[in-house]
């Protein structure tokens, strides 16, 4: 299963890859299905948190996953750094993946080692990294083709 918080960018790329490949998906999102582009579309099978607080849903998704894949391009933004800090605090496995530097085969190898039943996918939103959705979607498709 792939989970994320449903924000634009990397979160939605992860969910759309799951849908495209027939992998179960889900995760937690803020109350009201809040995202930077309005309400998160209903096609994403997300549960709403009691509050609209982004950090709370980020933490719940880390808690509910076996491992977290964090995608980024140049530097970690505040939300992405928060995800890493939560993983560290909770002792949860995570991998920082720099696009386009890191190769899908390396990530597939990490996934084979971790064997997560539930994988949290996180990274920047579209407004802070324009085009990150398309780049992340293509990259993740390659990863899962390497690691079915």
Automatic annotation (TrEMBL):
Source species, domain of life: Bacteria
Pfam family, one: cpYpsA
InterPro entries associated with the record: cpYpsA
Gene3D superfamilies (UniProt xref): 3.40.50.450
Name listed for the protein in its UniProt record: Molybdenum carrier
Natural source organism: Novipirellula caenicola
Lineage: Bacteria, Pseudomonadati, Planctomycetota, Planctomycetia, Pirellulales
């Amino acid at each position: 299963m792939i989970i994320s918080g449903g924000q634009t960018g990397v979160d939605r790329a992860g969910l759309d890859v799951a849908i495209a490949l027939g992998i179960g998906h889900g995760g937690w999102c803020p109350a009201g299905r809040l995202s930077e582009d309005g309400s998160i579309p209903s096609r994403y099978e997300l549960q709403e948190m009691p509050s609209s607080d982004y950090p709370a849903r980020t933490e719940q998704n880390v808690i509910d996953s076996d491992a977290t894949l964090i995608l980024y391009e140049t530097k970690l933004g505040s939300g992405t750094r928060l995800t890493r800090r939560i993983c560290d605090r909770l002792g949860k496995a995570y991998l920082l993946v720099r696009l386009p530097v890191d190769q899908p085969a390396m990530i597939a190898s990490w996934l084979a080692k971790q064997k997560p039943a539930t994988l949290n996918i996180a990274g920047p939103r579209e407004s802070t990294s324009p085009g990150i959705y398309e780049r992340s979607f293509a990259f993740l498709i390659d990863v899962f083709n390497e690691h079915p």
